[in-house]
From TrEMBL:
One Pfam family here: GST_C
Entry-linked Gene3D superfamilies: 1.20.1050.10, Glutaredoxin
Keyword annotations of the record: Transferase
Domain annotation GST N-terminal: ranges: 1-80
A molecular-function term among this protein's GO annotations: transferase activity
Domain of life of the organism encoding this protein: Bacteria
Family note: Belongs to the GST superfamily.
Entries under CDD domains matching the protein: GST_C_Beta, GST_N_Beta
Name the record gives this protein: Glutathione S-transferase
Keyword Transmembrane: no
InterPro entries from the UniProt entry: Glutathione-S-Trfase_C-like, Glutathione-S-Trfase_C_sf, Glutathione_S-Trfase, Glutathione_S-Trfase_N, GST_C, Thioredoxin-like_sf
């Protein structure tokens, strides 16, 4: 049995969508990062980095969104969370997954926590972050012009990850009007049954 420690509409949404796609029972434990619950001792014992997502499984505990997504794809090949190892799309999906986790996600962390980069000039840190995010979105805008999803014409885990981050754009008033392909793409992802179901659950959890 999996237990996902999540905070609504954060990067844990990507793992939540993957669990929903696997379609086996799982438990959700809400850690509200806006209420600083990720700094409480019980959660720190699970993840000393004080961040969601955390996945608990029979043999242990796993952190890092991209690592969890890969782990789940290996344990549940039937869910097709990643392209098969011998396919051309596999390398593209891996490239995107790592790019999202080591490049785009940290740009967003500049917007949420600029003081972690510089206590003296948080405004400048945010401004640079916004520009970097726009530059990165331009790359995805171009990529998605010729294909339905990030790694080709099938949806895989990196799509869940990029989709989760799309919610943060509104939060920081980053306008998608110049990215028409991405707008359509985010709509497409939101309409996948597992994503629609997770959005509903996270909305309910957020209001609780
Ligand atoms: N490297 C981690 C980053 C996780 C992360 O940044 N989680 C955010 C939510 S999207 C969080 O828990 N933020 C609270 C904080 O950093 O204080 C991963 O890839 O899972």
């Amino acid at each position: 049995m999996y237990t996902l420690y999540f905070s609504p509409f954060t990067c844990s949404l990507a793992v939540h969508a993957a669990l929903e796609k696997i379609a086996i029972p799982y438990e959700l434990k809400k850690i509200d990062i806006y209420k600083k619950q990720h700094f409480e001792p019980d959660f720190l014992a699970l993840n000393p980095n004080a961040q969601v997502p955390v996945l608990q499984y029979d043999e242990g505990t796993l952190t890092q969104a991209s690592g969890i997504l890969l782990y789940l794809s290996e344990c549940h090949p039937e869910a097709k969370l990643m392209p098969p190892a011998d396919s051309a799309d596999r390398s593209k999906a891996l490239e995107s997954l790592f790019y999202l986790s080591n490049t785009l996600h940290p740009y967003f962390l500049r917007l949420f926590y600029p003081e972690r980069i510089s206590e003296e000039s948080p405004k400048e840190v945010k401004q640079i972050g916004i520009q970097k995010i726009k530059d990165t979105l331009s790359l995805f805008e171009e990529k998605i012009k010729h294909q339905t999803f990030i790694a080709g014409d099938t949806l895989y885990s990196p799509d869940y990850y990029l989709f989760a981050m799309s919610y943060w754009l509104k939060f920081h008033n980053i306008d998608l009007s110049e990215f028409s392909n991405l707008r359509k793409y985010f709509k497409r992802v939101s309409q996948q049954p597992e994503v629609a179901s997770v959005l509903q659950k996270e909305m309910t959890e957020m209001a609780a």
